[in-house]
Design brief:
- The chain is of the alpha/beta class.
- The chain has a single domain, classed as Rossmann fold.
- It has 6 helices and 8 strands, in the order βαββαβαβαβααββ.
- The chain has an 8-stranded mixed β-sheet, with helices on both faces.
């Protein structure tokens, strides 16, 4: 069962074609006051913001900061914000998180916003977004460094991810215990 993500932070990780976007769409359907930061035009039919600047840089960060500060936080109406292709805007340290994402990552519970990031590889994403997430949803991964990183979080997690059947995923809970979840249906 998918945990209650109300006022929680989460990350969805996995290779292309493993089910990340499908899971995100299921979460968006359950929360009508939601918006997806749609980098690759995959959220047609959902409340979305179509990104103009798709790659890390001043314009991309300004665009993201504008949407989050004015629409997600500023309006007070959004209850779920999903940042797809998050590694494009929140690369690993030493790059700092964009101001708006830092604000959400620190204070989302005070804004009553659930905040999720989606990325193919955990090693390509700022660690604060993974390590401070309440929940991780991890689909198939094959990269050696990704699996080592996951094992450092919870013993055996990398091997569990490597052995996942197609469209299955692991849910990592706040206590770092994890369970395999069947594919979801919309």
């Amino acid at each position: 069962m998918i945990p209650d993500l109300t006022d929680k932070r989460f990350a969805i990780l996995g290779l292309q074609g493993t089910g990340k976007t499908y899971l995100a769409k299921g979460l968006l359907e359950k929360q009508p006051l939601s918006i997806a930061y749609d980098v690759l035009h995959e959220y047609q039919g959902y409340n979305r913001y179509i990104v103009k600047n798709r790659q890390y840089g001043d314009e991309a960060i300004a665009e993201l900061n504008m949407l989050v500060s004015k629409v997600v936080i500023g309006s007070g109406k959004i209850k779920l914000f999903v940042l797809d292709e998050a590694n494009r805007f929140c690369p690993p340290k030493p790059h700092p998180l964009p101001d708006s994402i830092l604000e959400l990552n620190d204070w989302q519970r005070h804004y009553h916003v659930s905040f999720g990031v989606i990325c193919r590889r955990p090693t390509q994403l700022h660690t604060d977004l993974i390590e401070l997430a309440h929940y991780l949803f991890i689909f198939q991964l094959k990269g050696k460094n990704d699996l080592i990183y996951l094992d450092s979080m919870s013993a055996g997690l990398g091997d569990k991810i490597l052995a996942l059947p197609q469209y299955h995923f692991v849910i990592v809970h706040p206590n770092h215990e994890y369970e395999v979840h069947q594919p979801i249906s919309l």
